[in-house]
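Pipeline run #58 for the internal structure catalog. This entry was flagged by the ingest filter as a single-chain record with no existing model, so it goes straight to prediction. Upstream metadata was stripped on purpose; only the residue string is passed forward. Reviewer on rotation: M.T. Logging verbosity set to normal.
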Amino acid sequence: MKLLALGTVALDTVKTPSGKRCDILGGSATHFALAARFFCDVNLVSVIGEDFPSKHLDFLRKKGVDVSSIRRQPGASFRWSGEYRGDLNAAITLKTILGVLSEFSPRINPGQRKISNVFLANVDPDIQLRLLETIKSPRLVALDTMNYWIDTKRQSLFKILKKSDIFLANDAEARAISGERYLINAAKSLKRLGPEIVLIKKGEHGVIAYFDNTIFSLPAYPVDNLVDPTGAGDSFAGGFIGYLAKAKKINKNTLKKAICYGTIIASFNVEGFGVERTSRLTLKEVNQRVRNFKKLMHFK
């Protein structure tokens, strides 16, 4: 089973109470791919600059990720610099350099147009629409966004929401789009915009899912050593969407299992800077923590 993922492949500088790392591999597509690879073949669509180290592409290839549609263009790579202080749920953005991302137009290989499972990470919704229009027969379309696009590209965001099956947002984003204060009402409001399945991510407080008039909530896995939360939401999305892409059918049972796998892979992600922990993660470790979590939650 194949999965096409559009998003950023970036160089991050991150500071947390555990330390600091400069120009490490990051980006929404990167974190997503390292989680989804356990369940399906991931094809990334992104752009990098002349300054992007080739060793990072080699690393992704070794992890089984198809990087043939990551285009290298003249200019600087997308860079993000942030810091986590008292509240590790929220990053303080210190600097963002868009670089080649500011003029990004996705191009995929002819064979990738037949991939039916698509994840659109939080880039410009107009870019998300352009990519989706090139897919021949999408089976599953999942969408993520961020406050910047909610504020500046609201109408384009509504257009892509109508074409989406699954929408993932954090609590602040869900409230900003829906205008609802309470998250259950926000989830119901978002579902009316198009997607059949709505997931609202709440950081260390877990996730709320709304589908088939059902509300399902799962807390985050209790982590002893939280090092760097960057990419946790994208790791959750990778585990969740990857599991659904592998599933022969999507129902309440597979959705709950997918949420569980996304939660667990995200819990590993925060145990190291950037991709330090997920780069050496094995499916055996994931399955063991899933079993532990189910026992803890009395979840079948």
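catalog note: The chain has a mean pLDDT of 94.
catalog note: The longest strand covers residues 19-26.
status: ready for reviewer M.T.
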